[in-house]
Amino acid sequence: MKNNKWNRIVLKVGSALIAPERKGCSSRYLLHIAKFILQCRDMGTEVILVSSGSVAAGAHLFKNIDKPSLPIKKAMAAAGQNEMMSAWDRFFDFPSAQILLTHGDFQDRERYDSVRETIFALLENGILPVVNENDVVTTDALKVGDNDNLSAMVAAAADADALIICSDIDGLYNKNPHTNDDAVMIKQVSVIDQSIYDMAGGAHSSVGTGGMQTKIEAAEKATSHGLTTYIINGFKENSFEQLILGNNPGTIFAPYAKPMEEDLHWLTHTAKAQGELVVEDGFEYPLEQHSEQLTSSELLEVHGEFSAGDTILVRSDDGKHKVKAEANYSSCLLNFITKHDNAEDEPDFQHHTGPLVSDKNIAVIDH
Description:
Layout: E1 8-13, H1 15-18, H2 30-42, E2 46-51, H3 54-58, H4 70-89, E3 96-101, H5 103-107, H6 109-124, E4 128-133, H7 147-157, E5 162-167, E6 172-173, E7 185-186, E8 188-189, H8 194-199, H9 212-224, E9 228-233, H10 237-244, E10 251-253, H11 262-269, E11 275-279, E12 299-304, E13 311-316, E14 321-327, H12 331-341, E15 357-364
Parallel strand pairs: 1-2, 1-5, 2-4, 3-4, 5-9, 8-10, 11-13
Antiparallel strand pairs: 6-7, 9-10, 11-12, 13-14, 14-15
């Protein structure tokens, strides 16, 4: 490649490219994507493919179902996953491997490290990892929900250089190009702020679940980890030809000049909060400078069930989320302490606890 000297990339392909008519997998759009993967590998770039499409690929096997229930969707995913893997396999003369993940695999650090090790072992042996969310077993508590964000998590876990997200439009526009003729595409984004999120609309495709909003979320996850991120039109062969030439065919998101440290990135963008502490409005932030002051004397309410070591949110009583942090105590103990500290005839328990959250890694959510 002329300019894009990638060692490792993650390529995210959506359902609309895999099974555009929900009648099984189609090679219509996959041929030029497979060609791109082959060219990357020939140039020494390792590729990890995040491929949606199992539900869309399996839908045609279930007759006369206009609005499938959740169990039927899981069955569609189970049936369609084989078809999707077979569709990719027929394009390549090298082996591929299926990796099915849930958010729980990223939430648990031991499983997260295991995912990393598996991906690295596959790449070292010339095997193409094909990643998808495990729709068959995932629950609301465990699901990522879209493969845009999943691809960013995989890219961070795999220490990739770039994330390429395929869309049904050429890139990020200042307004929805499907409904606005005067929409202008943004070629480069240096900082992802609220104005960038405001440009993102809902999902246009009837097949996929990830609209531009989730692609921006994924770009924020990836760029904060130091990855260059692209949103391109996956339906156009020229998009991939331009990437091979080192050009930008869509919107490019610049990586952070100083990426987040691994543990902080995991806490900010991967770990799900298991509960919430509500503290007094007068409590001073940033928390990392005052964590020793956050004791039960500032604690007003405890929401959710969590154990010591779980990720939680801490917010002031005005309703704004402030930070993500690691709980030093369980919700059961904190509920007990809060209840008794607020009772006039009960002993004071607040001096029997230290800081309520760890100051090792704290992610600021709202300023």
